[in-house]
Amino acid sequence: MGMFAGKKILVLGIANKKSIAWAVAESLKREGAELCFTYMNDAIEKRVRPLAEELGVSLVLPCDVQDDKQLDEMFGEIESRWGSLDGVVHSVAFAEKDDLSKRFCETSRTGFQLALDVSAYSLIAVAGRARSLMKDGGAIVTMTYLGAVRAVQNYNVMGVAKAALESSVRYLASDLGKENIRVNAISAGPIKTLAASGIPKFRELLTTFAERAPLGRNTEPEDVAKATLFLLGPLGSGVTGEVTYVDCGFNILGL
Ligand code: NAP
Question: Which CATH architecture has domain 8-248?
């Protein structure tokens, strides 16, 4: 019996097999979880459905996190199919490429709103709806990055969005704790994914990171998956409101 046998988990943010959410989904499946995947639009649906089939996931629903109606419909469908929910993996972020390459002081108002809406508000929108299905308590895990607390070159408005996301984790943990719902974030080291490819000079970042990180290597999606399972499952029962670094120790370094 796996650690997640009989547990129902919603996974947001699978774009392809390089996605952090895919590594998490594979690990959850190995541990016996029943999963729901989502896709943002028709083009992504074509990529996500075969991945769902590969893991034997039959519940695959549309969800653009900027669309309240779609969020309502998705949770309505989860309620009618599952009746309850035990966990959510929120692995979603977006910023205009232009806003990551310009000077930070030139960030546009619309770019700021878009990055904060998709990457930070979406956690609140999801948690607010998930809680009513988490009748016996539950756990929510989101993905963040060091750029929330340090000024990382080229991370720009996404850093501000991640700061809002980390703060939202604390407020949600404080709010939902009385319902035995835990909310945590993992601050992952840089990993080559679709989202990361939008960050200028990302390849150089990876090289420098592996040279300097105490463990002398880059972070793998599987590293993040293991920590996600800890925070989502029974081993993390006393942990909420935390940002856990899974970055081979990079964040502890000074110059
Ligand atoms: P990814 O594979 O590109 O995943 C990002 C996901 O966000 C995609 O599935 C994307 O869907 C989805 N998304 C974007 N806008 C959305 C919207 N409006 N509604 C619903 N979904 C939307 O990249 P990833 O690196 O695994 O990113 C997952 C999370 O990890 C993000 O929060 C990211 O910031 C965080 N993170 C990544 C790294 C890294 O170095 N890779 C490090 C630390 C933290 P589409 O494909 O349809 O756009």
Answer: 3-Layer(aba) Sandwich (3.40)
